[in-house]
């Protein structure tokens, strides 16, 4: 019953977007209730659909669009878990935003844009073909541009929006190139009759793509998947296109929570998961995914150590955790095949809960103290108990704290959601290392886990403990903001216990689509006890280090934090990425060289010489002359008609009659 | 006979008579209700045509109902509906509204008869019914000399063209002994030697001249700018967006069948006609200050694009032509109505204003009449062929079909025709963008106005149609392909 209305999952927020945009001004709280109601509707339909299709059904609806393309909906396990997560988290964030944005005059625009954004993200998830996926994906990019630059009168926000748009665009172009290449290969395959489309299916549908995998040359397949991954690198902020994500913190914190925790950035991971059978068939691409992901996880975590803006720390943390998800797909994909999707998606969803929670906590703090700088905070624990406690829960989840009791013969382990989800990825990386002898991804992952724990507890201690370092009167946020925190905290604590059910459900995904994936030999050997405990050990170690430095203040780190120290300088300057990306590539190369010379050619030669002087004047003069032919005298008109008949006679006679 | 097939025509004819009778009974002030009545009748017909996929023939095969006739009836009814809704505002204080609506409905019926005509006599009767009604409509503002001039010129040139067309038809009858189109085709099929004679060519040329007058192809176009400019703006919408398409449906039915039958090589002749028409229309449009005139020339250019369908006469090209005709009906109808809003705006500033459609009056329209300005913006982009819009889909299918044929025939000059057509599309952006600049960049010259609801409804419906077809073209493409299949082309 719910499945029949699956299209409404996207259409309701679209409708809310239109209504809020035009009528928001006249409604309560800038029309916030419309998107909230619409997204609640999306969530209810998603959840109802899940109950209907669980455990082994899928929903496919498709309409012919044009030129062999289609528009359609595919709800399989992979999609439905994402749908539930996105609509649920987005719902909570929208509710929270009623409080957070209460004093902003541009509320209707805010709620309209977040509603459209949610619709676009849900559209990405629902798509049953890669073209529609791309269209929704681009819409997500557009909305992120609008929302990051929401306070567009702030130059830094406008610049950040521009950077986000341009950098993700690099990935989008690669993705589009991948689609074009895929289409080219698909039509080759179809026209060579090596493979025929099933009746009622379309050329760019995922199921057709997967069915055609054996017929596409392996080199092409590797290129296509790498191009797809290029798109994912842009959207999910992987190295080297990660720079936009921390800058994107210029938007309202709720936007950061929505875009940069729960939804948009996970689209890249979702893309790789969605097209995973193609990646599995192209192991070289999978290796690239594993290395980029692992490296990004560590690389971003190093910068998270030194940032002083509370949101920036979280941003780097997001980049790092997205790296983990990619690592899970890549390394675990090579080790255990299709099961990697379940592992990675599980981390994606548990991360969405605790990262959204962190951003909302950060928003609550910023709302209270009016600054982003953790050096000016401190001692907030007593004043903001709910925020502080929910934040520590999120931090524990991010650090992956828990006790793997399973290995002692006890039927369950105890731990936060991050403990279950992140450890599985690290173990997957280890399994890959064991099989191939290539332990580098595993080393990336374990070092990143240590740094993660250090930076997140540093953040917590500096914000909530010690003595207040500024003169602001902090107070707990209103209920409309704290309730979503509590709900998310419950998920951050307990979501991990759904692990085995989740794997069992999502692992069936590609089976249900009738895709056979080569499952690699050698099911992961139960790793030794030290490997199992390693993530927890580094997690606790990180906590202790932070506790020692930032709570007990036994170690004075101020002598490291100077511009003299080259390592610190490198980190605080973000490896000079902004300089490289904005100044050298953006301004010097693209603007000064390419754009300026393009402008010269365009203005002076094309516009100046050709358009103005040759085409423009000729067309204008011709127009003037011909206009004079229009005498207004009706006899002339009749005469011209007779002339026209003469012309036709001549033309037809010339035609050889 | 299954008269249910003709239910929309019958309904609209009766409605036209009812409107006239009611006009005698109701007071001048409440004559507005006749507009609502006409709109209701048109909506009913529209629903009937979309809802029932009837096919069949009536009156000894003189009238056929098939996908081709139905998609053109859809076009005519949509345009009439837009015009009627807008007229509720435009003619609000006119005492002769009853005659206006009756004539408009009869014109629509005439066009619909042409769409269904399978016999030269039926075709001619439909043509004349529509023409006679629109002659009067063009001159309906009898106190306005421009309107009278428009009607008179339209009438004179129209009569000349009718005469030419009738002459062509009589030649065809003389050659084949029949006025029934399938019978004519059959005659040529049985007597292939009779097919290629000079007399046939002459007959063909006279028919082309008659249809080309309606289609406003160069050089049969000269009446169009004067008439569109002088007519009441809502009537211009009807003429440019609707009655022009009558020429196309007649040409599709008669010319395509005749060309298939007599196999004269007319590709080059039509290509030249099409290229001249689109280039001329676009170039002259550039130097216009009157937006109605600009739209008239843009209509001429669009007719040039549509007549590319005759150049290659494949199923794809004809369905492209039909799609562009459908798109053009929405875009151009909407654009003229938007101009009517500007006229309303200017007249409410100054009762004695002349040249209400002058470019200067569009300055700051984005601030003064936001819905109208934004819709006009959409129509202009669509007319220029920018996706996702009906204009894009039509042009795309059309240009693509010619390209396919050019590749198939390995014909360079056919490819050149496509390139010229695309360059023409680019050229047209110039004069559309100029108006957009006036609307959004220049400062407004007056207060913000309240846009009358009927205008807004008509414009918004046209926008929805324009964008809707662009976003989800598949059903329309399929309908147009079915319509083209009726003509027996491959």
Measured distance between first and last alpha carbons of chain B: 31 Å
Strand order of the largest sheet of chain B: 1-2
**What percent of the residues of chain A sit in helical stretches (DSSP H or I)?**
over 70%
Tell me the Rg of chain A in angstroms: 28 Å
Overview of this protein structure:
The complex is a heterodimer of chains A (657) and B (490). Chain A contains 25 helices and four strands. The mean pLDDT of chain A is 84. In chain A, strand 1 and strand 2 form a beta hairpin. By secondary structure, chain A is mainly alpha-helical. A two-stranded antiparallel sheet of chain A has the order 1-2. In chain A, strands 3-4 form a two-stranded antiparallel sheet. Chain A has two domains: 422 residues, no CATH class; 79 residues. Chain B is mainly α and 490 residues long. Chain B has a domain of 226 residues. Chain B contains 21 helices and two strands. A two-stranded antiparallel sheet of chain B has the order 1-2. In chain B, a hairpin with a 4-residue loop joins strand 1 and strand 2. In chain B, helix 1 packs antiparallel against helix 2, helix 4 runs antiparallel to helix 5 and helix 6 packs antiparallel against helix 9. The longest helix of chain B has 35 residues. Chain B is globular and about 70 Å long. Chain B starts with 6 loop residues before the first helix and ends with a helix. The mean pLDDT of chain B is 89. The chains are: A mainly alpha (657), B mainly alpha (490). The interface between A and B is large, with 33 and 46 residues.
Features:
heterodimer; A: 657 residues; mainly alpha; 2 domains; two-stranded antiparallel ribbon; globular; B: 490 residues; two-stranded antiparallel sheet; 21 helices; 1% strand
Secondary-structure map:
The complex is a heterodimer of chains A (657) and B (490).
Chain A: H1 8-23, H2 33-53, E1 59-64, E2 70-75, H3 77-100, H4 107-126, H5 130-148, H6 155-191, H7 206-212, H8 218-235, H9 244-247, H10 253-262, H11 264-274, H12 276-280, H13 283-304, H14 310-336, H15 339-369, H16 385-399, E3 402-403, E4 414-415, H17 417-436, H18 440-464, H19 479-494, H20 499-507, H21 509-512, H22 529-551, H23 566-572, H24 577-629, H25 634-654
Antiparallel strand pairs in A: 1-2, 3-4
Helix pairs in contact in A: 1-2, 1-4, 2-3, 2-4, 3-4, 3-10, 3-15, 3-19, 4-5, 5-6, 6-8, 8-11, 8-13, 10-15, 11-14, 11-15, 13-14, 13-18, 14-15, 14-17, 14-18, 15-16, 15-17, 15-19, 15-20, 16-17, 16-18, 16-19, 17-18, 17-22, 18-22
Chain B: H1 7-25, H2 32-51, E1 56-58, E2 63-65, H3 67-90, H4 97-116, H5 120-138, H6 145-176, H7 181-190, H8 192-195, H9 198-215, H10 223-230, H11 233-262, H12 267-286, H13 291-306, H14 308-312, H15 315-349, H16 365-368, H17 370-383, H18 390-409, H19 412-440, H20 453-471, H21 474-486
Antiparallel strand pairs in B: 1-2
Helix pairs in contact in B: 1-2, 1-4, 2-3, 2-4, 3-4, 3-11, 3-15, 3-20, 3-21, 4-5, 4-11, 5-6, 5-11, 6-9, 6-10, 7-11, 9-11, 10-11, 10-13, 11-13, 11-15, 12-13, 12-19, 13-15, 13-19, 15-17, 15-18, 15-20, 15-21, 17-19, 17-20, 18-19, 18-20
